[in-house]
Amino acid sequence: MTKNSAATILQEKGIKPSLQRIAIYDFLAHNRIHPTVDDVYVALKKEIPTLSRTTVYNTIQQFQKSGIVQSLGVDETSLRFDINTSPHGHFLCRKCAQVFDFTPSYAGPQQDLADGFTVFEYELSVKGICNQCNTL
To answer: What residues does Zn(2+) bind to (predicted)?
Structure first.
């Protein structure tokens, strides 16, 4: 993804594409690691020395309100973010702390609710040990 396409995506969402916002968007788009605010800050601080954690936090909150990212509550100690906003689940490995995306094999909670309910979003989190950690 080029800087111009990131700027275009931000503009389409009504967000002014500053250097910091473009860098944060690009990091999220190219690092599908479900990072925390601190992960983003540490990764970009070398590239943008004037960047602050507050700027990263506020930018990600703005992205979340605009539907660019979703927040994940998979970990009890930190809030993580995902640029993939399509319906999918998350698996947290209790050994390596990585978060993996997966597609549930059913249509979601709408099929489990009585008639008349409307689901706007749902979060499916599964915790365990990933296959890589299982082989160690």
So the answer is: 93, 96, 130, 133
Annotated binding site for Zn(2+): 93, 96, 130, 133
Q: Distance (Å, rounded) from C-alpha 21 to C-alpha 62?
A: 10
The pTM of this model reads 0.86
Sketch out the chain's domains with CATH numbers.
Answer: 3-72 (1.10.10.10), 86-134 (3.30.1490.190)
CB 41 within 8 Å of CB 66:
no
Q: Is 72 helix (H, G, I), strand (E, B) or coil?
A: strand
Contact present, 60 and 69 (Cβ < 8 Å): yes
pLDDT tens digits along 76-107: 888 999 999 988 899 999 999 999 999 887 76
The strand pair at 89-93 and 124-128 is best described as parallel
Tokens of residue 20, six digits: 């910091």
pLDDT in tens, 2-45: 667 999 999 999 999 999 999 999 999 999 999 999 999 999 99
Residue ranges of the annotated binding site are 93, 96, 130, 133
